[in-house]
Specification:
The chain is of the alpha+beta class. It contains ten helices and 17 strands.
Length: about 325
């Protein structure tokens, strides 16, 4: 395997952007500015674990996530919210902070968010594996008996979840989703989400990566058009496994913040008080893992360069 740890040119992590002239909603990772009819999304370098935002950021994480989202939006060619990545299009307050915001900022269309996380699973992992062991189901969907952890499912399944501003999203049945969205919209989102998962999974397999599961967010424009919004197929929204280390029956290593979770589990932190700072080696390994996923999936020789030079739409 090529060495993805030779990119040592890191910048100081951006834990919070500050554009005081616009209202801002801060999530676990993203700062979202309301420009009236449009939004500006800034992907910071914050990282969360066990429902806490950690005091230590991962340098360039926001740029890596943005670069991956931009790649997938271009690759998938589905209607989406992206308008521009040019800071000048967002106005002087953003352009004035180009050094901090370049490569991590998107101008997007404002949409009415569908209040459901559209999760697609192709493998038995995470909360799905826990439920299957107890009940033989995943989100109420009956599966064949005798499946092992991380085993591929007969077909990808759609397992919606409620959206949570903080804490964990809650898995719900498709019938419950229908109660929230209506039958027609629920079926449309299921079809679209599974189709995207299949397309992305085929691409990932060609790069030696398994897309075990992912979640999508959708919104409606004022005219009623459904569009894909927020981040798309990043390690923060998806479970990516290296194909050469995948073995059914065990939980494979993933391209995400597993180094962070593992260190926190052994740090003595009680998960109820503010979390401790991360050591430098955990930060470096986590950044390397995110960057490797981006470079392999996007075929970018330098992943950060891709994030910063994506052609405007």
């Amino acid at each position: 395997m090529r060495d993805f740890q030779d990119n040592n040119r890191t910048s100081a992590p951006l834990l919070e952007s500050r554009i005081d002239v616009f209202p801002c909603r801060r999530g676990k990772v993203r700062d979202v500015y309301d420009l009236g009819d449009r939004l500006v999304i800034v992907a910071t370098d914050r990282i969360s674990a066990f429902d806490w935002v950690l005091p230590t950021g991962i340098p360039d994480k926001g740029r890596i996530l943005t670069g991956m989202t931009l790649f997938w939006l271009a690759f998938l060619r589905v209607p989406n919210h992206l308008l521009s990545t040019d800071l000048d299009d967002m106005g002087p307050p953003f352009a004035a902070q180009a050094e901090a915001l370049h490569g991590r900022t998107m101008l997007v269309r404002k949409a009415a968010v569908v209040p459901i996380e559209c999760v697609v699973r192709g493998y038995l992992a995470g909360s799905g594996w826990k439920e299957y062991r107890q009940h033989g189901t995943v989100c109420g969907i009956r599966l064949p008996g005798g499946l092992r952890e991380a085993e591929p499912l007969p077909e990808p399944i759609f397992t919606p979840a409620t959206k949570a501003e903080s804490g964990h999203d809650e898995n719900i049945s498709f019938e419950r989703m229908v109660e929230v969205t209506g039958q027609e919209l629920a079926e449309d989102l299921r079809r679209r989400s599974i189709a995207i998962y299949r397309q992305a999974g085929d691409h990932a397999r060609g790069r030696g990566i398994i897309l075990a599961d992912t979640k999508f967010e959708w919104g409606r424009l004022p005219g009623g058009e459904l569009i894909l919004i927020d981040e798309v197929l990043t390690p923060d929204s998806s479970r990516f496994w290296p194909a050469d280390r995948y073995r059914p029956g065990a939980n494979p290593p993933s391209f995400d913040k597993q180094f962070v979770r593992d260190w926190l589990e052994t740090s003595g932190w009680d998960k109820n008080s503010p979390p401790p700072p991360l050591p430098d080696d955990v930060v470096r390994k986590t950044r390397d893992r995110y960057l490797e996923a981006q470079q392999r999936l996007t075929d970018a020789a330098g992943g950060l360069a891709f994030a910063q030079s994506f052609p405007e739409r």
